[in-house]
Amino acid sequence: MFFIYILKLRTARYYTGMTNDLKLRFWKHHNGLGPSYTKTRRPLKLVYFEMCDTKREALKRERQIKDYSQKKKEDLIDNMSEERKKQIEHLNETIKTTWKEP
């Protein structure tokens, strides 16, 4: 399972990435261990994710979302299910308050 995710940065811009471990990757971004682009634009917040079965699918979808305009990314985020929004909020809170790197 692979995840495509979008982070909202301090600058109100979006960062799109792909990983096979969403929780660990978000923790790394949150703690400044991600790429320099996100490291210098903290704090950040996870605002979107979706899942793909294969790495190939995930890379293709990541590229597609990276090519979206800011507005199209906002529409993608706004149209998520309420259940997914709750999952994301829970993950944001977990990373900020309790989760430690394995």
Structure explained in plain terms:
The protein is α+β, with helices and mostly antiparallel strands. Helices cover 49% and strands 21% of the residues. It has 5 helices and 3 strands; from the N terminus they run E-E-H-H-E-H-H-H. The chain has helices at residues 22-30, 36-39, 55-66, 70-78, 82-97, and strands at 2-8, 14-19, 45-52. The protein has a 3-stranded antiparallel sheet with strand order 2-1-3, sandwiched between helices. A hairpin with a 5-residue loop joins strand 1 and strand 2 (14-19). The model has no long low-confidence stretch (mean pLDDT 91).
Name the helicity range. Answer: 40-55%
Major beta sheet, strand line-up: 2-1-3
How much of the sequence is in beta strands?
A: 15-25%
Q: Report the total helices.
A: 5
The helix-strand sequence is: EEHHEHHH
Mean pLDDT score, rounded? 91
Strand segment count: 3
Rg estimate, integer Å: 13 Å
* Outline type: globular
- Main sheet summary: 3 strands, antiparallel
Low-pLDDT regions: none
